[in-house]
């Protein structure tokens, strides 16, 4: 397996995106190493079950296999695992995955509802005997090499969104003073509260989800532009470099839609940060499927419909009842 890593210039901190939309899957999984402090962030990866009325193709399934292999490999190095929220592309359900590591996870009982609350409760129950999860919000850890600081709850997009809240993580190199901020699904950021928090963190490198431009027809262009404008202000205020990925790359037009960000010279995708070409397979699903789909079955008019269209009388509808079919019992196993 290739060891694709990128260092924050002049620092001992090494940041390695493990999976992302630009690497072919839905994920923001990241590994950070600062001396002996080793952190795995959001160790989940999934595929969109349906885009353009199509399921994932072979290339996406292969990308998911590689992503999960990378995440599992880097998990063996990590002493801390951080889970920003409970969407399935950000965590793993298997409690054994977290065994032997310190686990910071979004609080399972506060600022959470719906399916995320259900998933969180299920995971925390399953973790008994494997790991002791700690509510991440506001938590701080100082090691010989680094300082870890978790944020308060930040909106998963706009303030008050039904998508709930996420927790960001700042990792500071104590010797060099460089700061990496993983801001998860703040989507731009779209929230002024999240934007102000991220600016106050003074990141050297910021990794965040961009706005969901693939939903622009539903959300409106003003909302997408708000996310772009707020990120530009963070860059202007802090001079940070940015890894910009996830929701932003689900629309094939992302190179043009986010041109203002790319033109700063400070913003790259996760793949670009690793020195690789973008592979946003979900956005390209329509391109990947031609030639693999079966042609649609021809629609044949019914006999009754054909008679009516020919000017004849439509036969009277009749209900027929045959003997009830005998049901076969499914075999277990």
Describe this structure in words.
This protein has helices at residues 58-75, 114-126, 192-200, 216-219, 221-238, 254-257, 259-262, 270-273, 285-288, 303-309, and strands spanning 6-7, 14-17, 30-34, 37-41, 80-83, 102-105, 133-135, 140-142, 146-150, 154-155, 165-166, 169-173, 179-182, 205-209, 241-245, 267-268. The protein has one domain (6-288): Ribonuclease Z/Hydroxyacylglutathione hydrolase-like (Metallo-beta-lactamase, Chain A, 4-Layer Sandwich). The longest helix has 18 residues, at 58-75. Strands 1-2-3-4-5-6-7 form a seven-stranded mixed sheet. Strands 8-9-12-13-14-15-16 form a seven-stranded mixed sheet. Helices cover 26% and strands 18% of the residues. With 333 residues, it is an alpha/beta fold. The protein is globular, with a radius of gyration of 24 Å. α3 runs parallel beside α5 (221-238). The chain is built from ten helices and 16 strands. A hairpin with a 6-residue loop joins β1 (6-7) and β2.
Blueprint of the fold:
Blueprint lengths: L5 E2 L6 E4 L12 E5 L2 E5 L16 H18 L4 E4 L18 E4 L8 H13 L6 E3 L4 E3 L3 E5 L3 E2 L9 E2 L2 E5 L5 E4 L9 H9 L4 E5 L6 H4 L1 H18 L2 E5 L8 H4 L1 H4 L4 E2 L1 H4 L11 H4 L14 H7 L24
Parallel strand pairs: 4-5, 5-6, 6-7, 13-14, 14-15, 15-16
Antiparallel strand pairs: 1-2, 2-3, 3-4, 8-9, 9-12, 10-11, 12-13
> Could you tell me the number of beta strands?
16
Strands side by side in the biggest sheet: 1-2-3-4-5-6-7
CATH topology: Metallo-beta-lactamase, Chain A
N to C succession of SSEs: EEEEHEEHEEEEEEEHEHHEHHEHHH
The amount of beta strand, in percent, is 15-25%
Q: CATH homologous superfamily - what is it? A: Ribonuclease Z/Hydroxyacylglutathione hydrolase-like
Shape: globular
Distance between the termini: 36 Å
Largest sheet report: 7 strands, mixed
Helical fraction = 25-40%
User: What's the helix count?
Assistant: 10
């Amino acid at each position: 397996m290739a060891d694709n890593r990128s260092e924050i210039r002049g620092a001992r901190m090494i940041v390695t995106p493990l999976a992302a939309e630009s690497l072919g899957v839905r994920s923001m999984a990241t590994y950070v190493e600062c001396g002996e402090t080793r952190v795995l962030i959001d160790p989940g990866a999934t595929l969109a079950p349906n885009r353009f009325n199509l399921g994932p193709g072979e290339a996406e399934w292969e990308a998911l296999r590689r992503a999960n292999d990378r995440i599992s490999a880097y998990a063996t190095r990590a002493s801390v695992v951080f889970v920003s929220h409970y969407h399935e592309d950000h965590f793993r359900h298997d409690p054994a995955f977290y065994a032997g590591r310190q686990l910071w996870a979004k609080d399972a009982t506060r600022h959470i509802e719906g399916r995320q609350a259900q998933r969180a409760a299920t995971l925390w129950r399953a973790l008994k005997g494997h790991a002791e999860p700690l509510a991440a919000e506001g938590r701080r850890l100082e090691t010989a090499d680094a300082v870890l600081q978790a944020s308060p709850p930040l909106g998963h997009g706009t303030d008050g969104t039904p998508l709930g809240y996420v927790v960001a993580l700042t990792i500071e190199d104590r010797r060099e003073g460089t700061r990496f901020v993983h801001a998860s699904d703040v989507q731009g950021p779209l929230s002024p509260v999240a934007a102000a928090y991220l600016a106050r963190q003074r990141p050297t490198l910021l990794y965040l989800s961009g706005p969901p431009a693939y939903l622009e027809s539903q959300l409106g262009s003003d909302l997408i532009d708000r996310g772009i404008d707020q990120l530009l202000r963070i860059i202007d205020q802090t001079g940070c470099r940015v890894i910009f990925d996830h929701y932003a790359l689900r629309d094939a037009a992302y190179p043009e839609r986010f041109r203002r960000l790319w033109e700063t010279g400070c913003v790259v995708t996760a793949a670009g940060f690793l020195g690789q070409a973008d592979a946003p397979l979900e956005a390209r699903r329509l391109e990947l499927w031609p030639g693999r789909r079966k042609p649609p079955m021809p629609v044949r008019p019914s006999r009754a419909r054909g008679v009516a269209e020919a000017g004849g009388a439509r036969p009277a509808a009749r209900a027929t009842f045959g003997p009830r079919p005998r049901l076969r019992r499914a075999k277990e196993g």
